[in-house]
Amino acid sequence: MIITIRSQANSEERAQLMTLLCRITGSQSQIASVIMDEREVIALNVDAQAHTLITQQSAVESVLPIKTAYQLVSRALKAKPSSVVVGNAHECTPVVIGNGVPVIMAGPCAVENRQQLLSTAHAVHKAGANILRGGAFKPRTSPYQFQGLGIEGLHLLAEARQQTGLPVITEVMEPDMVEVVAQHADILQIGTRNMQNFPLLLAAGHHRQKRPVLLKRGIAATIDEWLLAAEYVVAAGNPHVILCERGIRSYDPQTRNVLDLSCVPLLHELTHLPVIVDPSHATGRRELVPAMSRASIAAGANGLIIEVHPDPDSALCDGRQSITPEQLRKIVQESRILAHMMGEQEAAVYVA
Ligand code: PEP
Ligand code: MN
Question: Quick check: pTM over 0.85?
């Protein structure tokens, strides 16, 4: 259920409500409220008796039952799609994800060195990308693979933003690093291996700067598990979540993963959160990236995140799936044309 708190509720009424909610849920700590669409709301899963008690509280404006386990991210709560503003905290060109124009995030898998990052940043900017990606902390399968430059990588991303005006996205792997990464980044990426790292999800929800969070689908996660992971972030106080489909594990080694494109229109039914697609990790093969990018936009994705390297074969990480800036330029153009055509189609249907 979603409890909306009366904006005029005084502190005594609010304290009374909180005490009741803690008693009902058995929670030892303060129950967090979230601001969604300028209203203060609390999401809970309680029985009918508790429902009646809560409705009687003077601090409560309304109680909306939601049938799914995820509540705040549910489309039942918010029929209108949410958009997420990126880059308003640093000096750069802010971008809106979810407003009808596909947003293209592009850059190297890993920040390797200053020259590599800056040249890629300028190249993807020129190719029309809106956001620069680059991993400073890399979750690698083997401990012997390049693990990223760490904090130095964050400084280089900030420099690339300052030079190009592109907001930056980078991965955070540990709860204790969320504040530091948020100081430098415009979007916190939570990777596939950490989709159910609950302390990390909570830290991304609680952290002071409330940076948007890109939540990648777990390698074998169901859509409900993924939405519940997003619910953790939102319920902890950060409504700015973007979902990213990046392929799920299957049995065929021909592609790195299997891109589940049916999840895109399905997610738009289940949740109001924006959805983007990562065709690079989904396929693991650069020759498949252009077609899967087009397919993603045609399926209704609000954007793409693509690995780009000036010399993909020499990349320290994921070179096999990285494309060149020139190939990116074409994908950007095609994505915008496709989204435009689809927008016109929708308008035509609406007029008819
Ligand atoms: C990445 O984007 O660099 C990455 C590690 O992705 P994923 O978590 O989807 O594997
Ligand atoms: Mn990668």
Answer: yes
